[in-house]
Structure formats: structure tokens, C-alpha cells
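Let's practice the habit of predicting before peeking. Look at the sequence and jot down your guess about where helices and strands might fall. Then scroll down.
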Amino acid sequence: MPRSRSLTFPRILSVASLLALACGGDPATTTGTDGETGGSETQATTTAGPTGGETETLTGPTTGTPTSSTSTDSTASTGPTSTSTDATTTEGTTTGGVTEGGLSQRGSDPVVLVGGQVPGLAGVAAGDVVGFARKDGAWLQIPLQVDERVLVDFCTIYAEELLGENAPCKTAKTIQALFYADPNTYTGADTDPALDLDDEVVFMARDAGDRTAPGDEPEGVVAGSGVEVELLDGDEKAWVYLFARAGGELEPGAGVDLIGYELVFAGDIDYKTEYPFIGKGSCGNATCDPPILEDSTVTSPHYQRHFSARWVTDSLRITLPESTGEDILDIAQARFAPSYCGRHVLTFSTSEGAFAANIDGPVRAIRSYFGANSGPLTQRTHLFYDRVEVVQTFLRVHPIPAIMELIDYAPEAGGMTYYNEHNEAGLPIDGEPDFGFDDTRFSWELVSGPHGSVVSVLDPRLSQPLTVVGYFEDNLNTPNDQCSASNTLDAPDDAAFGTSGVWITSAIPETDPRNGAQDHVFIQRTSFYEPPNLSVADAKLLAGRIQAPLQPLARSFSAALGETCGDGTCAAGEEASCPLDCNPFAASCGDGLCDPWETSVSCGEDCGGGVMPGPGCGDATCDADEHELSCAADCWIGPFEPLVGCMEQACPAQKGACSDEQACVDRIVCVAECVGGGGAINACAAMCAMQVPATPEQAGFANALMMCTQQNCL
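Done guessing? Here is the structure:
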């Protein structure tokens, strides 16, 4: 049988940059060559290493903004110890021990509701929803944004319309997930232009005001269309009112633009026809020059961000009046281990990729993109608010080695200090090695100094336990390779300057829906951009706001004074007016909403149907998206099927990495058939290296798989 040569391959929102991957345990002891299979590592003297850490299984809800995520291990959960510098105080009244009409501790926090939580506005055009607050006895329109979402097949977003079977999603399956709609990408506009159950309604918590009675409505809205949103924050309450606008005089943004996002490609290309979706291929430890560069910027009164390639963010300035305005960031990095460069943000940006959405709205901006080498469905979404950035990372890849998610600061950050809940004394960021770092897993970290302050809160949602440790390295003469091999990008530099973040050291199972994965790794990082010299106490206060989120209650305004909505019981007459009681979203499969970590493969009930044309593997036909390693039963019959089964059990990371590189597959086939014919493995490997051309990275994948197979299966 001829072999195929086809390549296969929030309800309320929270948290920047965690590419949580792992497969073979501690990567410092993983053997192998260049690529996704690990490599021998040298631990930096400034880092305690993976000697501790906590194991956690999280399967609960997380959707969207810094007011929804939860954590179980943060010391900040004990409550605030001081007042945050960004708090916005609103005068209010006190009733029964609860201050009404203001939220004094939520100056930065967005509130995100899905359409299914907003009774009475279903069927209203998404662009016709407006928001108001009642303050000082008068109606005040507040900025509001509706972001539509849509179920779409991954291959559609990967320009299947343009590229056909060559679309780099590398699968013949139809696999759907929920994405932000964008007519300027292949994601396209929402198929339902009205506010539907999965669209998101976004406003700022600080804009909430006093409560008013039904019948009190602002001018320019449809009578009787109101929805009352009550926000409860500890002993404080405040309200926002949503309406359908009656005409075109009211703009949802209320004349305000809180955040600016400009996507700029080098050469001013047209995304839909000229973007390099297929990329240049895997570069590994070689020179990584992304095929398209960017000069994309995010700007607010509090901070500025810059992107020079799809996965490469290389600039951060805190722009508050008292800040220095220095660019304190070298690069936000993701890699497997301290000195390993087989996979990192430059390799992600050089290989296949696509954008799901680029949205610049009045309340928030959205940047969402795909493509991480042999995880073409791996996705990252940035949600930018005026004082907060939320980064969501969706891992969808075969089993792979461990991952580090790091922020590498620039020398211009000198004078700042790093803290987390286990290192509250602080470590100076000065390029000189530090000792005594406690690498216990943390939930928040703070970098503070004259340039400004960044408080980040990490919130993973994992279907299986993973061991996570903290990491810190401050050494201008680091022995660890900084993965800086690029002729076109200035970042990263060759120094580890206050490099900090988390190291996930335990194995992660299959998360790629193309291979039928039911497991998920979904991680959010919320970063608050704050004034200079923020204290640890204030950092704990901000972290506590993530861990004790606002409690929103949306109900029909006409029934607002009926206090039974929110009691957990769907009473008679509440079916249409109180979705919280009658149709709650449980952040689980079967609740009617496709959650960020779900796909049509893992939850067809919520996310549509995942379809594989024809019977697939096992139908005795080597289909276009199958090959010897992905479907030995159809493409590599005889004695090799049990060999591949053993590889799957003993060498999943090595097999997965090789399976996504056709030259690696071909070399493995050549060696296995040679050995099966009686040849010595070393002689067969040497012969096949001459007969089957491969890049150094592909050869590394093949060598690592052969080594593992020889040790475990032969």
C-alpha cells in the first residue's frame, strides 16, 4: 500500500503569558536532542530549581475578567491590608451594613457578562445595547462594549477558504470552538447579529452607581427594555442598567475610548490574502526570522505595549504621570527549560499561524492568534483594558516536555524589585545573581520601582494535576541560552535580567483535539499596571480582588424590586427575568455555553459537532491526513503497528513531535523498515540519514524518538 506523504498534524473575566505545556517530568533530566523532546539542562545558580512546588487539579469555572478567577493557595485571600492606589471612591448610602452606590476597591476591574445572563435583551442587535448608571439623582451614560462570539472550525480560521487542503491546521476533521467574531479575519462575523447567549457585554466596575426604581428610564432607550445589574463586593453594592437604544443618537461607547490597539504588519499587507499562514517552518535552535514582522501597539493612559511578531511582545511602559516611562520589558518568553531553545516564542512566530480576532473597542481591545509549531491549534488571547491586561493561553498539542512561562525584563528596569507571596522581602533586579529564592508555587507576583509597578495573578484551569514551581534569575552573564537567534528581531537580548515566572515540571497529557483529546490546559494571567513603588500590601489587595471576585446579578428591570432573583430558586415568573436562578452557566460541559477550554471534540453538546470525514483511522485506507506514525493500522501494516503502539505508550512526547514533521516520519519509517529487514540499527540510521533529507531540528526529533524506542520498545 503506498504511504501518504500528507502532513498531519468571561462570565466575569481574569489573567499574561502562560504557555502551560509539559510531558516527561522534570525537563532538567530529560534526554534527547534539539526539538520538542527536551534536552540536558544546566540549572542557573540564581534559581532554586524544581525542588518543591504544589500539585493542583482545577476544573472549575473561569471566564474572562479580573473579577472572576479563583485560587486556593494565595496568602492574599485573607483580605486586603491597605488601600489600592487605583481605587475609585464613589459616594453612596449605607443600608443594613452595606454601602450602596459605590465600589471603592474596583477602580481597574472590568465586568463581563455573557448574553445569556442578561434577561430581556435577547434579540436586540449587539450594537444597540447601551449602559447607564444613576449618580447624584441623574442618569449618566457609561462606556459599554459588546463583543460577539461565534462557533467556528479551526481550519476555517486558518484560511481554508484561501489555501484549501493546504491550510496549516493540518487535519481533515471539523473541530469547532468559540472565538471572538471578526469580519477582518477568516473567523468572520457572528452568524447571529443580535445579542445571543455567548456574546459578551463589557463595562467597567468603577462606572456603577446608585439604584433606582423600575419606570425610571433615561432618554433615547426602548421603554421596558432595561436590565438591572447589581454588583456586590463584600459590604459594598452598586448598580449598572442596560437598555436597548431607541435610535442612533446614543453610542455604546458613550464617546469614550479607554484603550487603543493598532495592528500594523510590515509592508502594509492585506491579512486575508497576503499573511504567511503556513510560515517558514520550524526553526528550533537555528536562526528564527518570522516571515512577517509587526509594529503593533496597545496604548492607554496607564501603559503601552508593543508586538514585533505574532507571539513576540517586546515592550512595556508604565505611562502614569509619576512613572519614568522607561521600556522595562525585553520579552515575554515561553520555553521548556532554562537553557532549552527547541521551542520558544520566536519558533512559534516563525512557523504556521493565524489571527482569530483583532478588535479595538471603546472599553477593551482583543488580540487572539494561533500557531505554536506542532501545536497549530494552540492559541493565545490578550484582553486589554485601560489599567489591566488579561492573557489567556489555550494549550492544544500532543504530549510535550515541561514549560516555563517567563517575563524577561530589560536592563532599563534596573532599580526595580521582584516579590511574590513566598519572597516578600524582595529580590533586587540589577543583573547580579541572587540567592535564597523560595521556588514554592505562587499565585501572585509584583515588580515594583520608580518605573511603575506590575502585579500579576496566575490562574490555571487544568483537567489533570500539574506540579508548578516559581522561577527567578537575575544574571547579566547567564549561562543559559536566551534563544535570541534572529536576524530581524531585537528581542530577546542575551541577558537574564529579573527573569521571573513559573516552571511547570510535571507531565501534561494529550490536549490536541485533532487527536481526540479530552484533557485541557487553560491558563490566565491578569496583570495590573500600577504607579511606582507599589507596596507588597497593595499587591496583596489587588490579588485579593481576583480571588474574591465581584458577584454580579442581572435581572429584568421591570422586576428589579422583586428580591427573589438571586436566591438560587427558579420561582414562578422568573424564567425570563432571572437567568441566574433559572439558567445558570456552570462552566462545565452541558451547561449550554462553550467554555474557553472546550471544543466540539471534548464537549460537542456545547460546542457543536466535531466531524471526521469517513471512518478515519482503522478503515484500511491511508487517508490524506494520516501517515505511518499517526495511523499505523492503515498506513504501516504488519509488524510495525505494535511498534507504534509501544511508542505511543513509552515515548508520547517524542512520537508527537516527530509526527508533525514529515521528514522525521520518513526517516523513522526508513530506519524501522531497514531494521525490520535485518539491518543493524546504527547502520540503518546512518543510511537513512543520507537517503532522507531533514533539517537539524527534524533530525533531532527522529534521533530522540529512535533513542527512546530503542530503550523501551526494541
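How did you do? The CA atoms of residues 122 and 195 lie 6 Å apart.
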